[in-house]
Description:
Blueprint: H1 2-12, E1 28-29, E2 32-33, H2 35-51, E3 54-55, H3 57-73, H4 78-92, H5 96-103, E4 107-110, E5 113-116, H6 124-133, E6 140-141, H7 143-153, H8 160-170, E7 171-173, E8 179-181
Antiparallel strand pairs: 1-2, 3-5, 4-5, 6-8, 7-8
Helix pairs in contact: 2-3, 3-4, 6-7
Amino acid sequence: MSTTLAKKTMNSTRPNVASKGPHSNMSKGRDGPSQGSDDLARSFLGTVFTANKVRSMQAVVRDLRQLAAKYASNRKDGSKLQALCNAAKNCASLPHDELNRKIHLVAVPGHSVFVAKHEDKRALRNIFILLFRHKEPNGTLTKQEVVAAAAKHIKREITDREYHQVVTEICISTEDGHLLLKNGDEP
């Protein structure tokens, strides 16, 4: 009977976060959260920005809460998914400044939205981001501006397929053929 009580006591003092998750280092050290918490936040935010390359702060928080709900509803591996659910909720509940700092791990700010970083520094998406950041809010781009900037920065001609892929991911085409950065609230 004492072993049962000891076991209950041990379980009741155990934290809600499982020791196994997508990242093995989720513990807290003397100096605060370990690098593992940033890795976990990066993983969740990477998931958010995979489906939609442009997100507003409100959309990021909403998407993190939806991700937490998805983990909570999946009953396959209860303890692991519950830990991921709690971690996603915690990420969504971070103070604005801290969440903003974590978003910067996976996205670039510009005009009240965040655009997913591309791992290749010479990618066309980064040219679009650079051009939009040098424009006023709600500024538009033309294809000629993009082609000229690509020739200057990545020193090659871009293909129509490559161009249209980035336009689809991060832009809205206006009636007059100009490109506007998505507002980040809709897919």
